[in-house]
Write a sequence for this structure.
């Protein structure tokens, strides 16, 4: 059985491996399919596709958009979108601008707390997106905290002393944006936002009406119980089930492609997603 990973981050957002290195690792781990889903950017996809040509597994281009819905943050994954779509790129440019201001706001708050992190230290890859993990890694390097978890608990997570709210796109607009660019929108890690899943169930009709096509069912932080309920919700609502590890770096979080202790995503998820992508392409050709 070949496992797959449909949720990963590269140096184009807050991951530590380049798209080429991700593909290399996926090859070594024997994965059957890999998707790149950087936060709020598609800038890594050209490198991803160029480097994927020589690989003997399937690849899908993607994105993970940080959106909001009724004061909560919702992450919307988008698969197989046209990453040169002008409307998509224009909308992303606005989101990226907001991200930039938020990062500056976080650094200001840290400075008020006596922690000086120069902006140059957290600028990642050219054309890439900087996020809180970049700031967390710098706090570790400075010896302010000893790991990523404490950087978030003490400083960066919602409610912590250096937290800054970010201007975001509405979840329904994120879904429509992905659809308009020919992509398949999927709600990322639903149980992370709503452990009971009752709220997710309630908002699904509205998300589906906007074009939502799938739920990220397979995810390391989902319990067995949440996993089962999400599978059920996907079936009941005619949504595809996808999954991935949310890979950011080696030795932190689930390994690329998962493990028996974290999550395993079956190849059938790739097939379902692939069918959706083809159905969309056919509809556009008509
Ligand atoms: P941002 O995009 O700047 O809002 O940062 C969000 C990213 O921070 C997520 O994708 C995770 O990679 C990371 N993150 C969020 N919360 C935590 C946490 N409690 N511990 C470690 N990493 C986290
Ligand atoms: Zn991230
Ligand atoms: Fe996410
Ligand atoms: Fe993610």
């Amino acid at each position: 059985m070949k496992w797959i990973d449909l949720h990963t981050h590269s140096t184009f957002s807050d991951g530590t491996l380049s798209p080429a290195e991700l593909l290399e690792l996926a090859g070594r781990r024997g994965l059957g399919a890999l998707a790149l889903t950087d936060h709020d950017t598609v800038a890594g996809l050209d490198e991803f596709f160029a480097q994927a040509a020589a690989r003997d597994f399937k690849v899908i281009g993607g994105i993970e958009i940080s959106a909001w819905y009724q004061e909560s943050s919702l992450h919307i994954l988008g698969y197989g979108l046209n990453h040169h779509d002008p409307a998509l790129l224009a909308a992303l440019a606005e989101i990226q601008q907001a991200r930039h201001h938020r990062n500056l706001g976080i650094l200001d708050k840290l400075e008020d707390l006596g922690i000086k992190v120069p902006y140059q230290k957290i600028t990642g890859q050219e054309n890439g997106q900087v996020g809180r993990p970049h700031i967390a890694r710098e706090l570790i390097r400075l010896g302010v905290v000893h790991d990523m978890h404490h950087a978030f608990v003490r400083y960066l997570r919602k409610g912590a002393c250096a937290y800054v709210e970010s201007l975001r796109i509405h979840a329904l607009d994120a879904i429509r944006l992905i659809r308009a660019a020919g992509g398949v929108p999927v709600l990322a890690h639903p149980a992370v936002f709503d452990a009971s899943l009752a709220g997710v169930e309630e908002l699904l009709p509205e998300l589906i009406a906007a074009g939502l096509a799938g739920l990220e069912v397979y995810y390391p932080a989902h319990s067995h119980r949440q996993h089962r309920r999400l599978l059920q919700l996907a079936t009941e609502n005619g949504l595809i089930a996808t999954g991935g590890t949310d890979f950011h770096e080696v030795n932190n979080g689930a390994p690329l492609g998962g493990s028996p202790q974290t999550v395993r995503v079956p190849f059938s998820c790739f097939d379902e997603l692939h069918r959706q992508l083809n159905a969309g392409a056919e509809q556009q050709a008509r």
Remarks:
- The chain is about 45% helix and 15% strand.
- The beta strands are 3-5, 33-36, 58-69, 72-79, 169-170, 184-187, 214-218, 240-243, 265-266.
- Residues 7, 9, 64, 246 surround fe (iii) ion (ligand 4) (CB under 6 Å).
- The CA atoms of residues 150 and 250 lie 18 Å apart.
